[in-house]
Specification:
- The chain is an all-beta fold.
- It is about 0% helix and about 45% strand.
- It has no helices and eleven strands.
- Strands 2, 4, 5, 6, 9, 10 and 11 form a seven-stranded mixed β-sheet that branches. Strands 1-3-8-7 form a four-stranded antiparallel β-sheet, with no helix packed on it.
- The N and C termini lie far apart (about 40 Å).
Length: about 130
């Protein structure tokens, strides 16, 4: 069992930056792939970024490539999402997810991730 707690959301102007954190409980964090997803009002939850258990592989949705960076610190049981050059369309609730078995090719599939945090709101003003 893994419990995830996100933090770091807030209100920022377009062009600004935020860093989200996701603290995980459980001794097996280092063996889980970790992901970030987001959901805007009235929209479906969508994939943002993911990182493999070893951090050797990262994967991003096209619209955030070059602006967002996912990283992890297995010693601290924490995964991060550094978000730069934020745009109003990045506004959403951001969720952290974890799974021990999801394959790199399936990172974008919301339904395959077993564990979810409660979400943190990110609002980007124009």
């Amino acid at each position: 069992q893994v419990q995830l707690v996100e933090s770091g959301g807030g209100l920022v102007q377009a062009g600004g930056s935020l860093r989200l954190s996701c603290a995980a409980s459980g001794r097996t964090f280092s063996s889980y792939a970790m992901g970030w997803f987001r959901q805007a009002p009235g929209e479906v939850r969508e994939f943002v970024a993911a990182i493999s258990w070893s951090a050797a592989n990262t994967y991003y949705r096209n619209s955030v490539k070059g602006r967002f960076t996912i990283s992890r610190d297995n010693a601290k049981n924490t995964v991060y999402l550094q978000m730069n050059s934020l745009k109003p369309e990045d506004t959403a609730v951001y969720y952290c997810a974890a799974d021990p078995d999801v394959l790199y090719a399936d990172y974008e599939l919301v339904g395959l991730w077993d564990y979810w945090g409660q979400g943190t709101q990110v609002t980007v003003s124009s």
